[in-house]
Amino acid sequence: xxxKRGLTRQRRHRRILKQASxxxxxxxxxxxxxxxxxxxxLKFAYRDRRQRKRQFRRLxxxxxxxxxxxxxxxxxxxxxxxKRAGVEVDRxxxxxxxxxxxxxxxxxxxxxxxxxx
Length: 117
Prior knowledge:
Helices cover 75% and strands 0% of the residues. It contains 5 helices and no strands. It has helices spanning 6-19, 31-69, 75-84, 91-100, 102-116. By secondary structure, it is mainly alpha-helical.
């Protein structure tokens, strides 16, 4: 006697199609393309949750470097000067200061410059 998996398969299919809703064409309507697309999207989501952290850090470094060069410092000299001065501000906050509060950033830059000399 074979097992037909009536209700079990229905539930599994319903769960997959619900997760794939919003996908275009057959990927959101038919079970096999939906399952493949869903597996792939979940794989990308897992990978990109880690990549997002790297990408934001790169963005912050670029912004800090650009702002530091306006005060005659490189990124590495700025960070070294701040570390020597005992300023514990992370890159996210520094980048935000560079964009939204240039005056505060300039004070930090001058502090770092005096420590580097």
